[in-house]
Amino acid sequence: MERAIVLLSGGMDSSTLLYTEARMKGAGNVLALIFDYGRLKHDGEFHSREVEAAIAVAEHASVSYRFIQIGSLPSCPLTTSAEQIPDQSAGRQVDTVVPGRNTILLSYGLAYAQSLGERATVFFGACSEDDLSYPDCRESYVEAMSFAFMKASEDKVEVKAPFVNWTKKEILQKGLRYGVPYSLTYTCYRGRELSCGLCDACVERIKAFQDVGVTDPLEYENEPHWSGCVAYDKEF
């Protein structure tokens, strides 16, 4: 069975991807990579909320995981001052672009895949809403990285982003069918204990739950309005 290496941030998209692969390949054939790349909390302390969520999701899915501390990536609001992250933007979200992030993290995926000595695919959770702001979440980038990885591994390791053309709503619908524990996930750009409910990441997540018609199990600092939604079992 081909192995799956999943870059797991602890957010909605990568967590759904992890559960999809665990269901399809069996949890024993999936390895989650969880990264600390120097994100900061709003008070200047090192960010850990995302990492905690990712570990909780991996353990709930019964997959093996590796925690990788790679130090700070180049300076940007996500790695220096989360207070600079704006509320929901009307267009391109340049303030949340981390230079080189996906290329660096995927390279760790390649290294771990090659260390297994088997055919493997490195997965990450890019989706259609990422296309405008993040060049390294576009389909052309995924194809280019997969070509490079296949060359580097003598055709044993490829890159896939199965949700690259999917909306958050479509991802959530799949995740609910697969029993993803969304109460364990974390999405907010600002890194606080409770998600802010105002940044692009929070608003996109909130909208997906509203569009599907179920209540997001997370608490928010700024409580969303859930008119027309129904609750679901947080424990699955």
How is the secondary structure organized here?
Layout: E1 3-7, H1 12-25, E2 30-36, H2 49-60, E3 64-69, H3 77-80, H4 101-116, E4 120-123, H5 139-152, E5 157-160, H6 168-178, H7 200-212
Parallel strand pairs: 1-2, 1-4, 2-3, 4-5
Short description:
By secondary structure, this protein is α/β, with parallel strands linked by helices.
Notable traits:
236 residues; alpha/beta; Rossmann fold; 5-stranded parallel beta sheet; 7 helices; globular; disordered C terminus
Give a verbal description of the structure.
The protein has 236 residues and is an alpha/beta fold. The protein is built from seven helices and five strands, in the order βαβαβααβαβαα. It has one domain: HUPs (Rossmann fold), CATH 3.40.50. It has helices spanning 12-25, 49-60, 77-80, 101-116, 139-152, 168-178, 200-212; strands spanning 3-7, 30-36, 64-69, 120-123, 157-160. A five-stranded parallel beta sheet has the order 3-2-1-4-5, sandwiched between helices. The model is unreliable at 40-46 and 225-236 (pLDDT under 50).
